[in-house]
């Protein structure tokens, strides 16, 4: 297999300054993509871009708050200005939300929905006009196992990710005959700063510890372990490459068997 599976492609990674987005951005660059790392934390995105450059790749960083449509439009404009086109967008930025229906405040609910659902939609919406003009484009949303499984203490998060899967199906059908593919990944628990924050919040509600809860979670997976950011990024690489050219409207689990249980 060629070692440059994204040769010549321009790929945006939202939330590219940390965790899965960082690993994916670096992997895409290793496979020949020009990578745009877009993050609400511009310092983090710049660090990742510098590390990619130092490895001989091509990357640039953009500050974006995905909850703001104008920010997403500016991210798209800056990418086209820099690289002349966009082949794909990994809509990955997200925040954890650990709470119950009776415990969550309206503000907490609205924040998680604003970033994970409205933000994901705005990132995709901003890219579509460029994709329509080019006659091709690839949108890969980051959903979660929480989209389709009830998991205690994740009320806003689960609802936001279920919305992302709904967007995947709707947008895939809307644009399937116009050269635009739309899919989502549903990762299982993967240690990142995000997971650390989610588990710390949940442990505070339950009166447990994040470390103990993470160990129990690992034991509940059929493979008896958690995923790695590399394992998620490998699937994203395939989905953003032409190797997946006949796949659209799919939500694909990458979860050590969790969703089969
Ligand atoms: N880690 C997991 O177990 C797991 C499992 C399933 C799904 N996911 C999803 O994967 C994605 C990445 O998660 P991660 O674990 O790598 O988290 P992470 O916290 O390491 O990275 C998330 C990134 O998103 C950025 N971000 C947050 N709000 C933003 C905003 N408003 N605008 C722009 N950028 C913003 C953060 O600054 C951060 O760099 C999220 O959508 C998350 O829901 C993660």
* Largest sheet: spatial strand order: 3-2-1-4-5-6-7
Relevant CATH superfamily: NAD(P)-binding Rossmann-like Domain
| Total domain count | 1
Give the strand tally: 7
List segments where confidence is low: pLDDT < 50 over at least 5 consecutive residues.
Answer: none
CATH top level assignment: Alpha Beta
Rounded mean pLDDT is: 96
> Structural class per helix/strand content?
alpha/beta
For this structure, the CATH topology is: Rossmann fold
Radius of gyration computed on alpha carbons: 17 Å
Describe this structure in words.
There is one protein chain. With 261 residues, the protein is an alpha/beta fold. The chain has 8 helices and 7 strands; from the N terminus they run βαβαβαβαβαβαααβ. It has helices at 19-30, 42-54, 69-83, 106-134, 155-175, 193-206, 210-220, 229-240; strands at residues 10-14, 34-39, 58-63, 88-91, 137-142, 180-187, 251-254. Strands 3-2-1-4-5-6-7 form a 7-stranded parallel beta sheet, with helices on both faces. Helix 1 (19-30) packs parallel to helix 2. The radius of gyration is 17 Å and the shape is globular. It binds nicotinamide-adenine-dinucleotide. Residues 14-15, 17-21, 39-41, 44, 64-67, 92-95, 115, 119, 142, 144, 187, 189-190, 192-195 line the site of nicotinamide-adenine-dinucleotide.
């Amino acid at each position: 297999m060629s070692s440059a599976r994204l040769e010549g492609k321009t790929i945006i990674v939202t939330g590219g300054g940390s965790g899965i987005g960082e690993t994916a951005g670096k992997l895409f660059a290793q496979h020949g993509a020009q990578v745009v790392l877009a993050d609400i934390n511009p310092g983090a995105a710049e660090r990742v871009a510098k590390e990619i450059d130092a490895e001989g790749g091509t990357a640039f960083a953009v500050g974006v708050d995905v909850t703001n449509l104008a920010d997403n439009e500016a991210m798209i404009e800056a990418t086209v200005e820099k690289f002349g086109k966009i082949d794909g967008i990994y809509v990955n930025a997200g925040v954890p939300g650990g709470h119950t229906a009776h415990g969550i405040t309206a503000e907490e609910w609205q924040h998680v929905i604003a970033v994970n659902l409205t933000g994901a939609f705005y990132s995709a919406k901003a890219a579509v006009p460029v994709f329509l003009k080019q006659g091709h484009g690839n949108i890969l949303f980051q959903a979660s196992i929480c989209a389709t499984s009830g998991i205690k203490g994740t009320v806003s998060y689960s609802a936001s990710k279920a919305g992302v899967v709904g967007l995947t199906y709707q947008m895939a059908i809307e644009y399937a005959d116009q050269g635009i593919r739309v899919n989502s990944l549903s990762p299982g628990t993967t240690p990142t700063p995000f997971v650390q924050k989610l588990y710390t919040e949940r442990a505070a509600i339950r009166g447990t510890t994040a470390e103990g809860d993470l160990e129990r979670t690992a034991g509940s997976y059929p493979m008896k372990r958690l995923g790695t950011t590399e394992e998620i990024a490998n699937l994203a690489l395939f989905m953003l490459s032409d190797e997946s050219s006949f796949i659209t409207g799919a939500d694909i689990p990458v979860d050590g068997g969790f969703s089969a249980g």
